[in-house]
Amino acid sequence: MARYEATASAPVNIACINFTSSRYWGKRDTALILPTNSSLSVTLSQDHLRSTTTSRADASFEQGDRLWLNGNEEEIKAGGRTETCLAALRKWRKEVEDKDTSVPRLSEWPLRIASYNNFPTAAGLASSASGLAALVASVSQLYQLPQSASELSLIARQGSGSACRSLFGGFVAWQMGSASDGSDSLAVQVAPKEHWPDMHALICVVSDAKKGTSSTSGMQKTVATSTLLQHRIKHVVPERMEEIERAIAAKDFDSFARITMRDSNSFHAVCLDTEPPIFYLNDVSRAIIAVVEELNRASVVQGRGLVAAYTFDAGPNAVLYALEENMPVVVNTINEFFPQTLEFPDPFHMLNKTATR
Ligand code: 2P0
């Protein structure tokens, strides 16, 4: 019996403009995963933070799809996000099969999917983004779907909102869209990584523990209780999206850095404004903010531009952006203030475990 298999890999993406809304950090539709504001992120291009997924379709498999994450079987819940993605991919495969009756009817065969993360899962390092993106990419390759990456992002979005952005490299926007069926809530590449090759990122792993509040439940609590969120959605993010896209187009690091840091702080302020408050940053995260702010202040006083920008997702781990020429000073400063040694008690020893771009 014929067997068909495909492997795909997707990296994490780290938001510069965090989306916080009545559906992303708030969703306007929790089933379709529609955000209430657009967002923009940078997809990391090296291999440090990556999900790799292999999908296989085989007519001889017992009925029902099965999924393994890091070697452990995960239940594919009926009506759950993974099932929704697989159903949507099958529907597009069936269209291919109906058009060309000579192709094998893979859509009717059970799937076996194995996915591995080469970094801690659910620790605020965007594992759901890379994981769901790799799953959608892998099955779409297996099914040889003709759809574009933006069209596939419509499906990845329903697996995990931020996953839609991980289907692209470089600088990626998730356009929130306005259609109630979600047909225009998709990701587009704002610029490829070659556009700004000097842009580098340093990942500072403060803690690889699973986070206490998942993004999904955290953002729903924020939507239900935060008044600051409403201000952020209406009056802050739309303008910032335009500004950061202009900064990327012009390769204007100072503007990119200022917007990224302000938006990270705005997002964590909204988490704090949630009832009960959500604390994703810890003392080490705040110390990293202080160090970067001081680096930048000293540079500006000397008549130079900003050296680095920090951003934190839903966890304590920092992503520091800097131009290549400034990365050595950033790495040295972080190593100086947060020595990477196992003699230090947690969480210090985890710092700066991974450097990538
Ligand atoms: C982002 N985050 O823009 C923001 C910043 C975390 C903070 O997207 O419920 O794991 O699966 O759609 O995609 C994390 O949200 O949430 C996220 P679901 P997801 O990257």
Automatic annotation (TrEMBL):
State the name under which the record lists this protein: Uncharacterized protein
Q: Which organism is it from?
A: Naganishia cerealis
